[in-house]
Design goal:
Elements: H1 14-67, H2 71-81, E1 86-90, E2 96-99, H3 105-110, E3 113-118, E4 131-138, E5 144-150, H4 152-202, H5 218-268, H6 272-303, E6 311-314, H7 315-332, E7 336-341, E8 346-349, H8 351-368, E9 374-382, E10 385-392, H9 424-434, E11 438-443, E12 448-455
Parallel strand pairs: 7-9
Antiparallel strand pairs: 1-2, 1-5, 3-4, 4-5, 6-8, 9-10, 10-12, 11-12
Helix pairs in contact: 1-4, 5-6, 6-9, 7-8, 8-9
Bound molecules: adenosine-5'-triphosphate and magnesium ion.
Length: 460
């Protein structure tokens, strides 16, 4: 009956989704930047360590070549010079021969070229050393010389980079989400403004317009365009209404004069045959006058001017009184009537028109609900709306006809022999729309269920 309420789910908000997308891109950018920084820094550090250990290996191999002394002696001599590097000489049988750290034979055998190791095993290294990067040289006789440098800084570098990345990641994430939330809220507010205005217009307040802010953004351009369209639509609707009202109005005076003329003639010419003709002509004229009166009434309600006369209405007593006043005639027609009216229902509206609305629906039960034996009136508030439901268990309305009968002059075949013009439900609908509501006709299996939704429900 009413458009769905706007979803409050953030993920359904296009502004928020857009912000999430740009957040994902910012994060991907941050990851890329950190990966590049990390790679560059690590390569530079590793290069320095590589240079140090390969230079030391070159030196010691040169020394061995020159002095032809065994490797352990050369290692001890180099160590004596200091330099901060770690040396290990592992004999061909896997025995540690010399040096200032002690990799096991397995590690020595595994060590190939330049490699970095985290220090887990006890290698007799100073405790501050958590990683080493070094080079292994395997001599032809099976002896292995390993020269390594302290690579703890490489580990710390990884840690520092990971920590800074986490900090930047969290900041981008927090700012991105905040931005998304703010963008979503701003967009939601504008869209809510559109939706509220359009709902009011749909409920008959054709003079409403969407707010245009000084920001002159895309929403404002859209609002301005829609306002121009609404203005045009309102003019067309007004024209149409005016034409209907004018025709009804202009034809009423000649019809009234014709009626007067017929009345006078009936009094003047007493012949029974003529009396019959006059009576028939008068009945037809009365019908035409009734139709024009009903059309004018609908036009007046649709024009919305009666909204300015709205007063506070105690709906519960009004419906109870209506039910009581219908009870005798319903009972004599063999129809029982029951009520379920919530107490203290109140709303702003036009008392006379609302009474007309309910009367039109109740009269239809009398006239059209063939074989009905029970009717009911119930009313309750749901949120800001009041729903009045009127049911019968008569012959009913086919579901494919349920929207058609709300249009002007539509009468179903079963009712053609009964009095009426097909204007009762359209007037009821126009009155509901004047009260920012609507009418739906449903199958009561058997019979008809008329649900009248009215806005502005508030308990007193
Ligand atoms: N309770 C009902 N049971 C069966 N048919 C119904 C019922 N209410 C309405 N109808 C059908 O809907 C049609 C339209 O109703 P509506 O009140 O607009 O016009 P009407 O009663 O025929 O004439 P009017 O109300 O202008 O005197 C009716 O002619 C009838 O066919
Ligand atoms: Mg009717």
């Amino acid at each position: 009956m009413w458009p769905d309420a706007p979803s409050r789910l953030l993920l359904k908000n296009s502004g928020f989704r857009l912000a999430l997308r740009s957040l994902a891109l910012s994060l991907a950018g941050a990851i890329l930047v950190f990966a590049i920084i990390h790679h560059a820094a690590e390569t530079a550090w590793r290069g320095q360590l590589n240079d140090a250990v390969t230079a030391a290996l070159r030196d010691i191999l040169g020394d061995i070549q020159r002095n032809q002394l065994p490797v352990p002696q050369n290692v001890n001599a180099t160590l004596a010079e200091g330099g901060g590097l770690f040396f290990a000489d592992i004999g061909k049988d896997g025995q540690w021969e010399a040096g200032n750290f002690r990799p096991g034979p397995a590690l020595a055998a595994r060590w190939n070229g330049l490699q970095t190791f985290r220090v887990r095993a006890r290698l007799a290294l100073p405790p501050r050393v958590q990683a080493v990067r070094g080079i292994a040289h395997h001599f032809a006789d099976g002896e292995t010389l390993i020269i390594a440098a302290d690579a703890t800084a490489l580990l710390s570098l990884n840690k520092v980079i990971a920590r800074s990345f986490l900090a930047v990641f969290s900041i981008i994430m927090a700012l991105g989400l905040l931005n998304g939330f703010l963008a979503a809220r701003a967009a939601q507010r504008r869209v809510d403004g559109f939706a509220t205005t359009l709902r009011d217009i749909m409920h008959g307040d054709l003079a409403r317009r969407i707010e245009v802010t000084p920001a002159a953004d895309e929403f404002d351009r859209l609002a301005a365009g829609m306002n121009a369209m609404l203005q045009r639509l309102q003019e067309l609707m007004d024209n149409l209404r005016q034409v209907t009202a004018d025709i009804s109005h202009d034809l009423r005076s000649p019809l009234a004069r014709l009626r007067e003329h017929l009345e006078r003639s009936r009094a003047k010419y007493q012949a029974p045959a003529l009396q019959e003709v006059f009576a028939e002509a008068l009945a037809q004229t009365d019908q035409a006058l009734d139709i024009f009166a009903a059309m004018l009434r609908i036009a007046e309600v649709e024009a919305g001017s009666r909204r300015s006369h709205f007063t506070e209405i105690a709906l519960s007593p009004m419906l109870t009184m209506l039910a009581e006043s219908y009870e005798p005639s319903f009972t004599s027609a063999g129809i029982s009537i029951e009520t379920h009216i919530a107490p203290d229902l109140a709303m702003r509206g036009d008392q006379e028109l609302l009474a007309q609305l309910f009367t039109n629906v109740l009269d239809n039960i009398f006239l059209h609900a063939a074989d009905a034996s029970a009717a009911s009136i119930s009313a309750q508030a749901l949120g800001q709306k009041i729903f009045v439901t009127i049911t019968d268990n008569g012959s009913g309305i086919l579901s494919e006809e349920s929207t058609r009968v709300l249009q002007r002059f539509v009468r179903l075949d079963a009712s053609r022999q009964r009095p009426g013009y097909g204007l009762g439900l359209p007037l009821a609908r126009a009155i509901a729309a004047l009260h920012s509501g609507d009418i739906v006709i449903k199958d009561n299996a058997p019979g008809v269920k008329v649900i009248i939704g009215l806005a502005g429900g508030m308990p007193i």
